[in-house]
Fold:
Amino acid sequence: MIVEIQKIQNLYKSEGFSGLLETVRRILDFKLLQMRRMVSKFLPSQREKKLRNAANKLWANENGSETIKGLSHFKGSGRYKDHEKWEDIGNVHIKMFDRFCEMTNTDSIESMIEYGPGGGANAVKFAPKVSKFYGIDIAKENLKECGCQLEQIGFKNYVPVHIAEPKDCLHIPPVDFFLCVAVYQHFPSKEYGVEVGKIAYDLLKEQGLAIIQIRYAGKYYKPKKRDYRANVITFTSYGLDEFWNILKKIGFEPLYLQLRPETNYAYYFATKGKPHNHH
Ligand SMILES: C[S@@+](CC[C@H](N)C(=O)[O-])C[C@H]1O[C@@H](n2cnc3c(N)ncnc32)[C@H](O)[C@@H]1O
Structure:
C-alpha cells in the first residue's frame, strides 16, 4: 500500500494532475476489459443469444409451414411425402445401432433419449426396444408429432421434454442410450454442440452408448456465424478429428465413426466409460 502511494506521488510530481488522471483512466480501462472478458466466458454472447432465439423461433414453426415440417422430417411433408424415404431414416439408424451393440456386447437397453426427434422417424424404430423413450426438443409441435407416431405403433412410455436451452433437460434420470441424428448441423454454434455433448454424457449411465451425428466441415460445409434462417441446413459443422477430440475431452470413449460423404454426415459411436468387451 505504502509503495502504491509512493508511486502515485511520484507520478503526480513527474506528470502533474492531468498525467495522473490519464494513468488512472488507462488502468480502469484495462481492468474493465479484463472483467468483460471474464464475464463473456460464462455468458453466451449477444450474437449467440440472437442465434439461439432465431433457432427456437424457426423450429417452433408457429405458422405451421410445410417447409419446416419437411425439415423436421414429418411423415407426409416435403421429401417425406414418400413414406419409404421416411421409413428409411429409422431403418438406417437401427442397423447402425445393432452393429454398435454387437461391438460393445450390449444385449439390451431399457431407456433412451433422442435429442431432436422431429417427426419421430427414428422413434418408431427405436422405442419398441426400450421401456422408456425420452424425446428432447426445442419445438413443441415436433414433440407432439413424434408422440402421435409412437401412439400409432402402440408405444405408451414416451416422455416428451420441451426445452429452450440444453440445460433444461438435466432433470432426466440417466439412460442407457443417447441418440442425436440430423440435429447438430442445426445448432446455433459449435460451442452449443459442445454443451449438448456434455449434457449427453451427464445423462448417460456408466457404460451407456451414444450415437451422435454431425455434418463435417468441408468445401461446401463451413460453420456459419449469422443469418440462422438462411443457413439453417448447414449452420454448424466440425472437422472430423475436431469432434472426435471434443467427445474425448468431455470424457466419452469414441470407438469408431462412420461417414456418409454424399451428405457430409459423420456418425460417432461413443461410450461412457469402457464398453463391456474392452479390458
Ligand atoms: C432434421 S430434424 C431431425 C429429426 C430426427 N432426429 C430424424 O433424424 O428424423 C431436426 C430436429 O431437431 C430439432 N432441433 C433443432 N435445433 C435443436 C436444438 N437446439 N435442441 C434440440 N432440438 C433441436 C428440431 O426441432 C427438429 O425436431
